[in-house]
């Protein structure tokens, strides 16, 4: 088999979202294959692999080709019993520890609804995410798509005055900000400490391609030196600009898809589905080598 990556939408978005074929990524990869996937990520930002029947161990092995992995510390179950054994695998599901669908008013389910807001994974951590890799183990009969926005193209399309205004801005990111947008305030004192705001640059330059992109998320709730209402209005305008349909690829999941995306160049959100059906997704996350603040230096 020969690894091939083709644009999913060669007419409207030829350089955003690619479909990969000719490779079984559940098996050990050669250095050339790893390099080709890295190159594809630099070009497309999002890569889709179909029919990859991962378990957690093989998903972890594939993910480690691209760097050190984050612990799954961004949910309310951190430090408690988990359904998934490995602390390096994020449980992106609507299931409890007994594999039963969570009740509609379950606290963990309500917190997870924040995934329906546009965000970049782990931007609420001092050292945020590089790649996310999401494996579809079980999917609902309809809905539950994931949408991705190309933050490189969104930056390129800004007028020069707005680019100049964004250039040196520093934002504060926290899951407390994003969940409060939905009215979720059920945080423990320990949660408040763990989710305290961190600083991130609003404009990033990709270390491999040199392209600039907006670094936005619903987790961003303040701009250093700005009044909060003005900052949030400005960030909302930027999110509306960056999520225009011309910048967005919507992925309709099939069972055993693996979708891999670069959080430094994209933003994403989950879409609704029937809450009585199972949606079981397992995510591994490759961490950046340094903070965005260190990147600025």
Overview of the structural elements:
This protein has 297 residues and is of the alpha+beta class. It has a single domain (4-296), classed as Clavaminate synthase-like (Double-stranded beta-helix), CATH 3.60.130. The protein is built from nine helices and 15 strands. It has helices at residues 31-44, 56-63, 107-112, 151-156, 160-166, 175-181, 189-194, 228-242, 292-296, and strands spanning 4-9, 13-21, 46-49, 90-93, 129-138, 146-150, 170-173, 198-201, 203-205, 212-214, 220-223, 248-251, 258-262, 266-270, 280-287. The strands form four sheets. It has a seven-stranded mixed sheet, covered by helices on one side. It has a three-stranded antiparallel sheet with strand order 12-6-14. A three-stranded antiparallel sheet has the order 8-7-11. Strand 1 and strand 2 (13-21) form a beta hairpin. The longest helix has 15 residues, at 228-242. The model has no long low-confidence stretch (mean pLDDT 96).
The assigned structural class equals: alpha+beta
Q: Please tell me the total number of domains.
A: 1
Characterize the biggest β-sheet. Answer: 7 strands, mixed
The CA-CA distance between the termini, in Å, is 43 Å
In DSSP terms (H or I, runs of 4 or more residues), the helix count works out at 9
CATH topology (level 3) name? Double-stranded beta-helix
Q: What are the secondary-structure elements, in order, as H or E?
A: EEHEHEHEEHHEHHEEEEHEEEEH
Computed CA radius of gyration, to the nearest angstrom:
18 Å
Question: Regarding CATH, which class?
Answer: Alpha Beta
Low-confidence stretches: none
- Superfamily at the CATH H level? Clavaminate synthase-like
Q: What fraction of residues sit in β-strands?
A: 25-35%
Number of strands: 15
Q: What characteristic shape results from the CA principal axes?
A: globular
| Level-2 CATH architecture | 4-Layer Sandwich
Helix content: 10-25%
- Averaging pLDDT over every residue, what do you get? 96
Main β-sheet, spatial strand arrangement: 1-2-3-13-5-15-4
